Amino acid sequence: MIENMARPTIIFYKLCVQNLTKRIQKILSFVSVDSKIVWDLCCDHGIIGLNAKYTGRRVIFLDQVESITDKLAGTDIPSSDIVLANAANYNFTKNNLKTTYILAGIGGILSVDILKNIIPILNFNDQIVLSPHNSIAYVRDFLSQSKLRVSLEEVIEDNGQFYEMFCLGTGYKYTVNPLPGELWTCNSDTINYIKDQIAYYTVKSAHSDQYAGVLRHFKSLLSA
Ligand SMILES: C[S@@+](CC[C@H](N)C(=O)[O-])C[C@H]1O[C@@H](n2cnc3c(N)ncnc32)[C@H](O)[C@@H]1O
Predict the structure, then answer these.
(1) Can you say whether residue 175 is alpha, beta or left, with left for phi > 0 and alpha for psi between -120 and 50 degrees?
(2) In CATH, 2-181 is 3.10.450.50
(3) Closest CA to 179 of 163, 197, 202, 196
(4) Which residues contact 72 (CB under 8 A, 6 or more apart)?
(5) Whose CA is nearest to atom 23 of ligand 1?
(6) Which atom of ligand 1 is nearest to the CA of 88?
(7) What is the pLDDT of residue 5?
């Protein structure tokens, strides 16, 4: 009994996570309202999942670091919803409930490895909310050749950093374009990101011809 009372509850965590960053708010806004299960993959602090849980869904937290899952186990999250595993080779099982997989805050190369592990068990109406923090061109190349389709793509600027975000699934309409921009909404975050990428690829192009195409592409987005 005493042990139970000492365990922080989900409500305690809700209080801790009220001030969500713009990045996390945007990730959460991509999660489909009718999702019954949400996987917070590579969850670390678990803030994304804890907020997805706020709406009453089942949320499963997965991370490969034991101290992280131990910390979550000290809350009232059911132990069956805390998984200590490598998401790139964890044995995900198919189910009939609409499921959302959130994959954010990790590198693009690892993201692709994890996507390759998830794609085979996806149902038609499942979704993946993806926001890698680097190697976006590599991720786009993979996505453009995979069976995943995209319903939504956005760029956000949060605390001086830019984040590309994708809402993916096998049941959506659009193929992911290896070159970005097609589905972006025109707002100040998007325009700042395009300018940032133009500056980045201008420097790269000075050293190698291989970036001329992508530089031209970003310039064309700005003039569109
Ligand atoms: C920077 S945190 C991201 C936290 C959260 N997803 C976010 O976007 O704020 C990265 C987390 O990914 C976990 N991680 C890295 N590789 C992993 C893997 N292969 N399987 C599971 N967790 C992994 C790390 O232990 C770390 O907790």
Answers:
(1) beta
(2) no
(3) 197
(4) 43, 46, 61, 82
(5) 42
(6) 19
(7) 40
